[in-house]
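How a chain folds remains the central question behind the approach discussed here. For one protein, we set the task of working out the structure tokens from the amino acid sequence alone. The sequence in question and its structure tokens are set out directly beneath this paragraph.

_____
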Amino acid sequence: MTSLGKPATQRQLRVGEMIKQALGMLFIRDEAKLPLSTKEITVTEVRMSPDLKTAKIFVMPLGGREADDVVVKLKEFSFVIRKVLSKKIVMKFLPKLY
């Protein structure tokens, strides 16, 4: 659901699911070469904005250990993740990841 209380459109759900699957595979294969173990990160949900230009990504490390540290590192290297993700997904505008 969006912040206005409107339900997400079918397109938002479909693009969100596509990004979720691509991020999951990216983390499993450790393609982003981040300074943390991405094999233990689970992407639980991706919420897209109505214009599909921003994506809010919800992640959880395995067992919930050091969740704050993992989120800080992922925020710090979101530009690297976005660059690798751009090679996996073909979209007119790749959304900014939060």
Observations:
- The first strand starts at residue 41 and ends at 48.
